[in-house]
Design goal:
This is Oxidoreductase. Pfam families: Aldo_ket_red. GO terms for molecular function: oxidoreductase activity. The structure is a single chain. With 306 residues, this protein is of the alpha/beta class. It has 11 helices and 14 strands. The protein has a single domain, classed as TIM Barrel. The strands form 4 sheets. It has an 8-stranded parallel β-barrel, surrounded by 5 helices. The longest helix is centred in the first third of the chain and has 15 residues. The protein is globular. The structure holds NADP nicotinamide-adenine-dinucleotide phosphate. The site of NADP nicotinamide-adenine-dinucleotide phosphate has 25 residues, from strand 14 and helix 10.
Length: 306
């Protein structure tokens, strides 16, 4: 399994991680199999959030980790907080502290390797967040911090108040979700693709040595479904199949490899809860695409160049 550096930290993590958003649909035995499969594949990073399955995903993970052959220290365990579903985003100090305590309990661990703020809160007071992060770090409950779905201005605003350097920004990114690179390719043009939705977040992350974690790597739209084997995307599936045949691998491995080919050195958060799919998808970490192969897939997804 290929590894990546986590931000500026010097820590090494697997280039693909296991996201457990969908683990609430499994029983503990099934979840145990997923965790053991992941570790056997060389995956050492797990991503959760307090809201996944209303907390049940983390609970199932915690119970499964205990009964599995995997020990706590074989994994980086990450969670996220700051969303009160259906009500508000909440970066108040107390909410952040409670979110971490809740996750430690559900996951059955006494520290998180990293904690991310899930989505930017318009009412964010950076000093409140700083006070929460200091307390969490001093108590040993959280080792590293990051954000998710933040643009560079939001990162700068928060970072200026923090004593810890933000290590991660988790963003939706994949073959069918490329707005963060489209605008760069269309710079100085007047078409819609030249619109910068995210403030140059990839360039920012590279300059500031933040790891970008690509969430929902196989989805198109906002949870509209996956593009793999989807008849809505015949050209893309045909191009991925051709490349997969050439490289004796699967289409999903090509989709993973496509993200990892980017020099920003993303970490891909895989969401499958099927051990066979997990092995297929993770295999992409060890497949190298040429520059032309990368562009050919980009074109097959419906993109162009000026
Ligand atoms: N920060 C954020 O705002 C945010 C938002 C959403 C998600 N996330 C993180 O990202 C992780 C991944 O998200 P996701 O689950 O949407 O990602 P995903 O891996 O793109 O999609 C998972 C879905 O694709 C299916 N799938 C995956 N591989 C397949 C294959 N080889 N063949 C057929 N079907 C396949 C899965 O079904 P099977 O289980 O049947 O394989 C599942 O329904 C989450 O667990 C979470 O940790 C973060």
């Amino acid at each position: 399994m290929k590894t990546i550096n986590l931000g500026h930290s010097g820590l090494q993590a697997s280039a693909v991680a296991l996201g457990i958003m969908r683990m609430d649909a499994l029983n503990v035995d099934q979840a145990t199999k997923v965790i053991e499969t992941a570790v056997n594949l060389g995956i050492n990073y797990v991503d959760s959030a307090d809201i996944y399955g209303g907390g049940k995903s983390s609970e199932i993970f915690g119970a499964a980790l205990k009964q599995s052959s995997v020990s706590r220290d074989q994994l980086y365990i990450q969670s996220k907080g700051g969303i009160v579903p259906g009500k508000r985003y909440d970066f108040s100090k107390q909410h952040i502290l409670d979110a971490v305590d809740g996750e430690l309990k559900r996951l059955g661990v006494d520290y998180l390797d990293s904690f991310l703020l899930h989505r930017p809160d318009a009412l964010m007071e950076p000093e409140d967040v700083a006070a929460a992060f200091d307390k969490l770090q001093a108590s040993g409950k959280v080792r590293h911090f990051g954000v998710s779905n933040f643009n560079p201005g939001q990162v700068d605003l928060l970072q200026a108040a923090l004593n810890q350097r933000l290590m991660i920004n988790q963003l939706q990114f994949g073959i069918m979700h490329t707005n963060a690179i489209d605008f760069g390719l269309h710079t100085n043009m007047q078409d819609d693709r030249s619109i910068d939705h995210d403030g140059g977040v990839i360039e920012y992350a590279r300059l500031h040595k933040m790891t970008i974690q690509a969430w929902s790597p196989y989805q198109y739209g906002n949870f509209a479904g996956i593009f793999l084997d989807n008849p809505k995307f015949p050209k893309l599936n045909a191009a991925m199949q051709d490349l997969a045949d050439e490289k004796h691998t699967s289409k999903s491995a090509i989709a993973t490899a496509w993200i990892l080919r980017h020099p920003a050195k993303f970490q891909v958060i895989l969401g499958t809860m099927n051990p066979t799919h997990l092995a297929e998808n993770a295999a992409g970490a060890d497949i190298n695409l040429t520059r032309q192969e990368w562009y050919d897939i980009y074109f097959a997804a419906g993109n162009d160049l000026p």
